[in-house]
C-alpha cells in the first residue's frame, strides 16, 4: 500500500508538473518571431540566420567537440589547477577520456568516486558545466527535430537553442531544486573535507563540497553523475525522505515535459498525449514489475530464520525503505539519468532486468530531449508498418516515410543493439570482462550487459559489482557512449531533413491517425518487438537465468 | 484476356511449372534481389556443410541436422515457389500475346504501292495500309479512312470498335484486327516499344522494378535481419562467459526462425499478384509505382458522363423563346443534329421525329463539327447557319438581341436548376430556344461516393455543363465538388492546385486535349479507345473504356499495400512464439532453470527447435493464397482499417505460431523425428 502511494505520488505529481513546464519550454525554446531574448543569444553566439539539418548537426558536433576538449584538459590538469583544497592528484588518461566522454554525452557513467578523485574545479567547471550543456544539447536537438516536423523549412540555429535551453530552462529549475536541497541539509560549500572527532576519539574525514548545486542539475538534466561515489545513497547527497522525493521528481520532470514541448511545437498536443501515455504505460509496467519482484527477499536469505515480510533489503538505503530503491532504479534508468538510490547489483534478478529493459528501449521517457528523439525513431517504424495496413504509402503527419527514412530509422535501432550486444560479447568472451566481474555465472554476465546497456543508452547508472576502472573498460565504454550519443541524434535529424525536402501530404480520414488509442497500441507493439525482442536472448542468459537457476524448476 | 481470369490459383498447369521455377530461382544472381531470402539460403548452405561434416566425422546428431537442413532449404524454395506461382499466371497470357506478335506482317506504303514487311522492321513515321481481315502491325494513328476493329486480342471483348482518322478515336493497337473497310495507319512507336510489347513485359513480370514502398520495406526487413544477426551472432560469446557453447546448427535455426522470412518470401509475389489483379480487371498499369500511387489518392476527378450519369443524355423537351414558333425551333434543332452521331444528337432527332417533325439536310449542306474549344456544332445550308451548343459558347457566336438573350437565360437557368443540360439553338443571328437534355444518374453511385468519403477520398465531378446544372447533378449524386464548364486547361489547373495542397489526384481521360492533365495527375487512366497522345500521357490504360473503374483502381492499390503491411505484421509478430520455442531449448543445457520459459510444454529441445523451423517454412505456402488474392478489402476509414488489420494479423500473428508450433511438436514427437 505504501508502495502504491509513493509511486502514485511521484509519477502523478511529476506528470502534473510536466505539462505546464512543457508549455513553458515550448515558449522558451521556440518563441514566436521577435519574442524572448533571441536577440541577446544571437549577439552572444554570433549565430547567423537559420540552419538546415546538416548545418544544425555540424554546429552541434563542433560545440560538443569543443566542450569535450576543454573538459578533457581541465580534468587532466586538475592537480595543478586551483580550487583543489583536498589536493586531489592526477587522473589516468583513460579515466579522463572515459569521464569526459561520459559527461559530454549526458551519460555520467562514473568509473571514479567523486569525493576521492575529483577537485572542486573538476566537479564544477568540468563536470557540472557539462551536466548543463549536455542536457541543453539534447533539448536543442529535440527542438530542431520538432521544428522540421512542424514544416518550418528550417531547424532554427543550434547555438541559439543551446543557450535557450541552458539559460531559460535548466538554470532556473536547477536554482529552485538546488536551493531546496541546500535548505534540506545537502552541503553547499567550497571548503575542503571536514575533520571530526568521533565519540570513540578517532578522527574522521567527512567529504563535502558544492553538493546541492551539483545534485540539482544531476537530476534535472538526466545526467546522474553523483558528487559522491555512492551517488544518492550517500547521506549527504540524499539526507531525507523529502530530498529523496524531490530528487525522484526532478529525475523524470524534464523528460516528461519534453514530450509536451514536442507536441506544442509540432502543433499536435493530442499526438503528444498519445506518446506520453505510451511512455507512462511502460514506466508503470516497469515500476510495478520492480516493486513486485523486489517485495520478496533475496534468494540468499530465503531460508534464514529472519523476518521475510519487508522484502529484499540487501543494498538498500534503509533510511528510505524497500520501495524507493526499485522505484528509483526504474526512474533513474527510465530517463537516462543513472543516479542510483540503491545498489542495483543487489536487486533481485528480475528487478535488475527492469532497468535493463528500459535502457534497451531507451525511449520511455529517456534522456532530456533525446528520449523523445528515440521515441520518434520507433514512431517512424510504427507508422511505416501501420501505414501500409491502412492501404497508403506510410506517412507521419503528412511526411512520407520512404526508403531513406526507413533506412535511417533502422540504422538507429541497429546501432543501439550493436553497441550493447557487440560490446557485451567482446567483454564476455575475453579477459577484459571475465576478469572484472565480481560474481560468477549469470549474475556476472548481467554486470557486463548492464554496463554496456548503460553506456549505449547514455544512462550512466552502474549495476556495479564490476571492477570497471580499467583501461579496457574506460576506452570501450567511452567509445560506446560517444557513438550511442551522437548517432541517435544525427540520424533522426537526417530523417527530418529528408522530410523537409519533400512535399507534405494533406491529411484526411484516409490517412493514418496518430492521435488515437489504436496508434498508441501500434506504438507499444513496435517498441516491444523492435526494441526489446532483440535483447531477449541476452536477457535469458543474464537476469532470467539468474532468477530461474535460483528457483530451480524442472527443465522440459 | 478475360478467358484466363478464372479464380483457380492452384491448377496443375500453374503448379508444376512453378515448382520447376522454384528450383531454378535458387540461382544466387536472382536470389540476391531479396536480401532476407538470400541470407536464408547462405545460412542453409552453411548448415548443409556442417551436417555433411558431422556425417563424415560421426560427431553430432546427424539425423537432427539433416532434418534442419531439409527444412531450411524448403523455406527458401517455398519463397521461390510463391514468386514463380505469381509470375506463372502472367506467363500464359504473355505466351499468347507473343505468338500474336510473331505473326504480324505489315503492308508498308511507299508512294502508291506497298510491300509486305515483318512488323518488327516498321519504324515510327512509316505509313502502312491495313485492309479488311488484316492484323494491325504496329501501334499508330489512323491518318486516312474509317474501319471497325476487333480488339479482342487485347481487351478480350469481341465487340468491334470504330477507328477513324482525326478526332479522339484515331489510335490503333498492334495485334488487333480490321474487320471492315481499310485504313492507312501512321506508325507512332519504334519496334519493341509498342503497347503489345509493354503488355507482354507487364504480364510476364519481366519489366518489374521494385516499387518505392517495396524498396523501403525491403530495407526494413534487411535491417531487422542484421539486428537479429547481432542478437544471434553474439550468443556464442555470451555462453563462452559461462564456459559453455551452443552448436552452430542450433544457432542457424534460431536465426532463420527470427528473421522475417515469411513476408520476405511473399514480398515479390504480393507485388506481382497486385499488378495481375489489375490486368485481370482489364487495366494495364505502366508501372507498379502507379498501382501504389492509386492507393494514396486523395482526390478523384470523375467525368460526369459515363461515371456519375449514364452516358446517354436524352432530349426531353424543346423550349421555344417568346415569339418563336415551336416548329421553327424543332426543325432547326433537328437539322443541326442530323449529322451528330452522339447519343444526345440522336436523341434530339428522335424527339423531333416523335413530335412529328420530318426534315432532311440539303445535299450541299456543310456540317460544322463539335470541338472542345467551340463547343457548338451545326449545319450551314441554303444560306442558313444553324447552330446548337452550350449556351455560353453559342452566345459568343453573335451579338444576339439582348431581350432574346435574356429570355434564353431564364429558360436555360430553369433547365439547369432542374439538373438538366440546356442546349441553345440559333439560326443565323436569331435565337430560337433551348433543348432540355436530361441526365440520368447511375444507380448506387451516391453510396459509392459516401464510401469514398469515409475513406478520406474527395470526389470532384468534371463536366462541361454550366454551374447551375452541375450543382444540381452534384447534389443529386452526392459528389463532393464539381468543376463546371471545364476546359482541359481548367482541369490541369485544378490538378495543380490540389497537388500543391499535398493531395494526390487521379483522373481518367481519352482525348488528346486530356493529355496534359493525364500527365500531370498522379494516377492518369487513359481509355483504350482514346488517342495515342492520351494513352501515352496516362500511367494506366483501361481496356474496357469504363471511367467508373477509377474507384476500383484506388481499392486495388490500397489492397496491395494492405496485403504487404498485414503480412509484415504477421511475420514479425510470429517472432514472439518462436523465441519461446527455441530460446529455452537452446539454453536449458546451460541453465536448467530456463526450462521454465518453455511455456508451450514442448517435447524436447530438439523437437522444439525443429518444430519452430518447420512452422517457419510451412507458413509460407499456407499464406501464398492470401498473398496472391490480397487481404479482404473493405472501404472504410483509416482508423477502422488499422484496428481491423492489427487485430487480425497482429494478434493472429501472436497466437497462430503458438498453436502451430505445439501441433507440429506433437506430430514430430508422434513420428519419432526428434
UniProtKB/TrEMBL annotation, chain A:
Pfam families: KdpA. Keywords: Cell membrane, Ion transport, Membrane, Potassium, Potassium transport, Transmembrane, Transmembrane helix, Transport. It comes from the Bacteria. It is a multi-pass membrane protein. GO terms for molecular function: P-type potassium transmembrane transporter activity; potassium ion binding. InterPro entries: KdpA (IPR004623). One of its GO terms (cellular component) is plasma membrane. The chain crosses the membrane at residues 56-77, 126-146, 167-190, 241-262, 274-293, 359-387, 408-429, 471-496, 517-540. It is found in: Cell membrane. The system is composed of three essential subunits: KdpA, KdpB and KdpC. Belongs to the KdpA family. Part of the high-affinity ATP-driven potassium transport (or Kdp) system, which catalyzes the hydrolysis of ATP coupled with the electrogenic transport of potassium into the cytoplasm. This subunit binds the extracellular potassium ions and delivers the ions to the membrane domain of KdpB through an intramembrane tunnel. This is Potassium-transporting ATPase potassium-binding subunit. The lineage of its organism: Bacteria, Pseudomonadati, Pseudomonadota, Alphaproteobacteria, Rhodobacterales.
From TrEMBL, chain B:
Mg(2+) binds at residues 510, 514. Its EC number is 7.2.2.6. Keywords: ATP-binding, Cell membrane, Ion transport, Magnesium, Membrane, Metal-binding, Nucleotide-binding, Phosphoprotein, Potassium, Potassium transport, Translocase, Transmembrane, Transmembrane helix, Transport. CDD domains: P-type_ATPase_K (cd02078). The keyword Ubl conjugation does not apply. One of its GO terms (molecular function) is ATP binding. HAMAP family: KdpB (MF_00285). The system is composed of three essential subunits: KdpA, KdpB and KdpC. This is Potassium-transporting ATPase ATP-binding subunit. The gene is kdpB.
